[in-house]
């Protein structure tokens, strides 16, 4: 996801567990949502694996399966402690919903599209976190972002320049340049093995 995201501190408390949070991170345009959709379809029969729908302060569209939340409702949910993880990036607010904490409490694996900048907070909030880093060459990223039609050429370039480093090596790295089947199967196989 992004690039100089800012994280709001969560209230201290015991870490969420015993389940596992798998954060899929990487630059915009890497194809995270596409690979998540592929893996979700391949693992549809697995009750122990859930795929999170993020809350985002952006209207719903066909490019991403998320729950649209207005800024006031998002701020209230943060204030009430309803989000187990939330962050700011690219002028928007993002969060994982309450169902993620419930699934983690029931010992499930929850797979979520996250932000590299949110990883340290995720590690502080969840007892078990695995990291999948999806990326692609810059020219591919730029073309994919531009195809969404949400940003100008200058905004696309600015987005690509904002890329925070990972806080350590990922548990799986996917270079998403081949067909979705190849990269998607790598993610699905990784999740099957957890």
From TrEMBL:
Query: What is the protein name stated in its UniProt record?
Result: Ribose 1,5-bisphosphate phosphokinase PhnN
Q: What does this protein do?
A: Catalyzes the phosphorylation of ribose 1,5-bisphosphate to 5-phospho-D-ribosyl alpha-1-diphosphate (PRPP).
Pathway linked to the protein: Metabolic intermediate biosynthesis; 5-phospho-alpha-D-ribose 1-diphosphate biosynthesis; 5-phospho-alpha-D-ribose 1-diphosphate from D-ribose 5-phosphate (route II): step 3/3
Q: Which family does it belong to?
A: Belongs to the ribose 1,5-bisphosphokinase family.
Q: Give the residues the record marks as binding ATP.
A: 26-33
* Keyword terms: ATP-binding, Nucleotide-binding, Transferase
Query: Which terms does the record give in the GO molecular function aspect?
Result: ATP binding; ribose 1,5-bisphosphate phosphokinase activity
Organism source for this protein? Ancylobacter dichloromethanicus
- Look up keyword Nucleotide-binding and say if it applies: yes
Reaction catalysed? alpha-D-ribose 1,5-bisphosphate + ATP = 5-phospho-alpha-D-ribose 1-diphosphate + ADP
> Might you give the EC number(s) for this enzyme?
2.7.4.23
* InterPro entries registered for this protein in UniProt: P-loop_NTPase (IPR027417), PhnN (IPR012699)
Say which enzyme class the record assigns.
Answer: transferase
Q: Does the keyword ATP-binding apply?
A: yes
Q: Which GO terms describe its biological process?
A: 5-phosphoribose 1-diphosphate biosynthetic process; organic phosphonate metabolic process
Q: Gene3D superfamilies of this UniProt entry?
A: P-loop containing nucleotide triphosphate hydrolases
């Amino acid at each position: 996801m992004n690039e100089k995201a800012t994280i709001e501190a969560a209230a201290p408390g015991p870490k969420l567990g015993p389940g596992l949070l798998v954060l899929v991170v990487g630059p915009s345009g890497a194809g995270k949502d596409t690979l998540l959709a592929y893996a979700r379809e391949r693992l549809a029969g697995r009750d122990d694996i859930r795929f999170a729908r993020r809350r985002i302060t952006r209207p719903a569209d066909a490019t991403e399966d998320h729950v649209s939340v207005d800024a006031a409702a998002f701020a209230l949910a943060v204030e009430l402690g309803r989000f187990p993880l939330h962050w700011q990036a690219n002028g928007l607010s993002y969060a994982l919903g309450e169902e993620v904490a419930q699934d983690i409490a029931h010992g499930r694996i929850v797979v979520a599209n996250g932000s590299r900048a949110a990883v340290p907070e995720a590690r502080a909030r969840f007892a078990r976190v695995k990291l999948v880093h999806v990326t692609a060459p810059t020219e591919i990223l730029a073309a994919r972002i531009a195809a969404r039609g949400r940003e100008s050429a200058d905004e696309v370039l600015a987005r690509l320049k904002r890329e925070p480093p990972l806080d350590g090596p990922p548990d799986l790295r996917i270079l998403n340049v081949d067909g979705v089947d190849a990269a998607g199967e790598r993610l699905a196989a990784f999740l099957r093995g957890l």
